[in-house]
Amino acid sequence: MSSLTPSDMSSSVPTGPGETPQQKLQRLQRELQLATERLLEQEQLAALGNLVAGVAHEINTPIGIAVTAASGMEEFARSLTRKLSGDKVSRSELQTLASQLEDGARLVNNNLARAADLISNFKTLAVDQSSAAEMHVDLSPYLRGIVMAHNPVLRSAQTRVELDTPEHLHATLVPGQFSQIVSNLIVNALTHAFQEQPEDRPRLIRVRLHSQGERLQLHFSDNGRGVPPEVRARMFEPYFTTRRGSGGSGLGLYIVHKLCEQMGGQIVVDEAHVPGLGFRVDLPLRD
User: Fold this and answer.
1) Which letter, b or e, does each residue of 194-206 get, where b requires 16 or more Cβ atoms within 10 Å of its Cβ?
2) What is the pTM of this model?
3) CATH superfamily of the 43-284 domain
4) Which tens digits make up the pLDDT trace of 170-185?
5) Which of 90, 91, 254, 283 has its CA 20 to 30 A from that of 140?
6) Domain extents for the chain?
7) CA 194 to chain centre
């Protein structure tokens, strides 16, 4: 577990010609800021890339069922044509074929609708995260869509999400920032919360969204292994990770922290939540 600071870099990088130690420190701080911004962009793209892979895998099932059903309908249609071209066809035969065609059409329609939902939820997530425009949003269905976009990775991790939201909750905000906050919290939980947990123990994430006066409250929690106090104290630091050398960038929760600040709010660890780990996000409602 470690984090990188400008003072760490200052002690190892030589001073340039005519550069004072103070100037060197300022230069290194600028370089670190630029490097952090590039890493933040890469982190966002990597997260979307993982979702793309999950959606691509998930969408194969409904598309495959729809193709199989369409193939069956084609055969039923040929059978119907043969019978109608013959000398004799009974009402019961026509009714059977009509029922088979109807069942096939229903399968095609339901599974294509499921595929369309998967694509739509992911498209909304991807497009919104690339936009900084404020919008008036009903956050209740929007939050459900964000969670549905993560269904492939949630299913792969054998983790269930419980949502607690009002039927409608309107707010004016940047949807992409809100969706990335939720997305990063989901990915962080899947990455850290359930390590070394017995497979027969249910894995659960709870997300509660509600308003309190002029504020928007998002409570995010899991029933995982939790984290020790010394880790909690540093969770929102840039580059701090408990998975150094295992692919952890240490930027996931830092991004959430910065986004909350940009939106005029904050995120804190819910010290009262046990077992597992909880976060409380407080944002302006601006209905």
Assistant:
1) beeeeeeeebbbb
2) 0.62
3) Histidine kinase-like ATPase, C-terminal domain (3.30.565.10)
4) 999 988 889 889 988 9
5) 254
6) 43-284
7) 17
